[in-house]
Amino acid sequence: MSPRTPTGAAVLQPAITRAIAEAVLAELAEHGYARLSMEAVAKRAGVGKSALYRRWPSKQEMATSVISEATAAQSPPTADTGSLRDDLRATVNALMAWLAHPLFSRILPDLVAEMARNPELGDVVDAVVCGPRRELAATMFQRAIERGELRADIDLEITLDLFAAAIHWRLTVRAAQAEPGYVDKLIDTILRGIGA
């Protein structure tokens, strides 16, 4: 016999959670973080505000939780091909797809700007979005060190900044396309720069 849900306990229905998450992302893409409101999300999702508050105590926790989960869904685990060049290619392609995603390409620039105005939000986004992606990339470079493809004394922090910054700058800041061959040229430049 399965345990009975206690009387009065909220049962979080996955379909409602999905509808709310989709509404959060749509509101962020259309209006930005500063104008995001629990009321607008509830209205778009077709639920009462209480459905949101049962899941998250605040707008910030709602937004960062939804962004974190959506980012994880868009980010396959870092490739482990046995070759740093091939791992980088797969990782760069995944990062480019994430930055070019129809919703994230509109959400991320606004979120970065808001993080500059709201350090607390910046800390949370760094912990739930940037940090996990960075850890995956660090693992990729650690494997390359263990295979002897990279020197053990490379500056890992600068290396991590190097490959992500180039893609972010091109796709998000410049809004430029990655022409054919761009990824291979970028990888060649990165590998030369870090002494691979």
TrEMBL record:
InterPro entries, per the entry: Homeodomain-like_sf, HTH-type_TetR-like_transc_reg, HTH_TetR, Tet_transcr_reg_TetR-rel_C_sf, TetR_C
Record-level Gene Ontology MF annotations: DNA-binding transcription factor activity; transcription cis-regulatory region binding
HTH tetR-type domain segment(s): 14-74
DNA-binding region, residue range(s): 37-56
Keyword annotations of the record: DNA-binding, Transcription, Transcription regulation
PANTHER family the record matches: HTH-TYPE TRANSCRIPTIONAL REGULATOR RUTR, TETR-FAMILY TRANSCRIPTIONAL REGULATOR
Protein name: AcrR family transcriptional regulator
Biological classification of the source: Bacteria, Bacillati, Actinomycetota, Actinomycetes, Pseudonocardiales
